Amino acid sequence: MSLFLAAACVLMAAGARSLGAQTVGGTVSAQESGAPVVGVLVLLLDTRGTEVARVQSDAEGRYNVIAPTAGAYRLRFLVPGYRPLVSAPLQLAPGAPVEYPLRLIAVSPELLDTLIVEGRPVPAHLSPFYRRRNYGLGRFLTRDEIDRTRAADVSGVVRRLMVLDVGSDPGDGGGRRVGSTRFGRMCPAAVYVNGTFAGMSGEVDIDHIVPLDAVEAVELYRASEIPLDFTARGCGLVSVWSRLSPRDTTGIVRHLALATQAGARLGSGGVRHGRVGLSLAYTFTKAIEIYPSLNIHIGFPNTTPDPAISGWQAIVALRARPLGLETPWYVGTGVSHVQLTGEAGAGVANTSGEGQHHVLLTGLLLPGGAWRAYVEVQLIDPLAVSAAQTSLFIGLARRFF
User: Fold this and answer.
1) What is the average pLDDT across 58-75?
2) CATH assignment of the domain containing 260
3) Selection from 281, 309, 274 nearest residue 295 by Cα
4) Which of 223, 311, 337, 349 is the most exposed place for a label (fewest CB within 10 A)?
């Protein structure tokens, strides 16, 4: 009975939130014929002009947009063949839906001389680029247009379009930083490569991540223009598309992180069996990284009969980011090979050992620049409950592309 009441309360709360949401909707029709216009992209913009929601009109020309919070908003209507339209400010409040019907004016066709057009197929992995270009938000350059800029690198292309600011990054060997200048400081833009978040400008150098001669297309957005397709947002966005499909690996620059780390085994007797070492993370798909590491064991002074352990440990693991590549949390699994010797105190025999063990790991790679701190927990032999060991590592990783 209590479970039934709890479920009923959840459903009632969800219904209350739905009824109390601040919404705006209406019918989009053509000015001349009055017929409904299908597939109109309707963008909801806040007072800063930032897109906060989007929908498309249905087969009857109807649309309905839910605002995240109450307040003032504008609507922008975009559809090929009709003039774009931006509404006056609309006040949206909970429980008070706003009806906003409108008629769009068709673009007048012009009679042109007969043209012979030659085209080429669009690579499948570039379809998001061309789909967004049809809506007219942001700036878009194809390969031919990039060549006409006569730029020497990607940052040169960005500079010529004058959408975002380009400056030097003194903290990364003179690399280029792209973004918007606010109060005399550069606010970085988000950088995407082939539809995948690569990092914030300053963390990655757009001139090194993909060479200009390997670029097929570029799209740029101010902060207020960034579509909802992109989950990572900054003070602008640069999306670079290579000439190769993401399924091809030839010529694609991959994400590589080299790290130094230190750690110790955690047990009932406290911290023991310290270790220092190196690790490497290499991204070979959009979701998976190969993650080898090598650690040298350092024996701590013991106050118990346990031997002071020395030796080495090598781990090869695969790790992934369940919440997305731009998020700090990662998990992984792999195999550990250990070779250890132990020198005990008086009355206790020395020990030695070698073997392979299953490893589960999880960690957080903290946001930052090219250098990033991280903390990681490793569980050795997790299925052998009585023999399982837990190790804690902290480290500093340097990312390359």
Assistant:
1) 93
2) 2.40.160.20
3) 274
4) 349
What DSSP designation does 118 have? -
Q: With 90 as the cut, is the pLDDT of residue 303 above it?
A: no
Per residue, the 3-state secondary structure of 300-315, as one string, reads CCCCCCCCEEEEEEEE
Q: Provide the CA 329 distance to its chain's centre, in angstroms.
A: 12
266 is written with which tokens? 């955690």
Residue ranges making up the domain that contains 184? 124-242
Q: Which of 7-16, 219-228, 319-328 has the highest mean pLDDT?
A: 219-228
pLDDT at 44 over 90: yes
Average pLDDT over all residues of the chain? 78
- Res 40: pLDDT: 93
Q: What pTM, to 2 d.p., does this model score?
A: 0.45
pLDDT over 60 (residue 251): no
Together in a domain, 170 and 70: no
- Rounded Cα distance between 391 and 380, Å, is 8
Judge whether 353 and 344 are in contact, CB under 8 Å: no
Beta-carbon contacts of 361 under 8 Å, excluding residues fewer than 6 positions away, are 317, 319, 331, 332, 333, 334, 376, 377, 378, 379
Same domain as 267, residue 374? yes
Tokens (6 digits) for 48:
């800063």
Give the separation between CA 159 and CA 161, rounded to whole angstroms.
6
Q: Domain of 86: which CATH number?
A: 2.60.40.10
The two structure tokens encoding residue 310: 């020395």
Q: Could you read off the pLDDT of 254-290 as tens digits, one per residue?
A: 566 778 888 777 665 556 667 788 887 777 665 688 8
Question: What are the backbone angles phi and psi of residue 44, rounded to the nearest 5°?
Answer: -100, 120
Identify the DSSP state of 105.
Answer: P
Reported as a pLDDT band with limits 50, 70 and 90, residue 188 is confident
As a whole number of angstroms, the distance between CA 325 and CA 202 comes to 17
Beta strands in 253-287 (DSSP E): 256-267, 270-283
Within a domain: 348: yes
What is the strand order of the sheet 175-182 is part of? 165-169, 175-182, 185-188
Q: What is the pLDDT of residue 81?
A: 86
| 291 C-beta neighbours (distance < 10 Å), count | 24
Q: In this structure, are 260 and 388 located in the same domain?
A: yes
Assigned domain for 247 exists: no
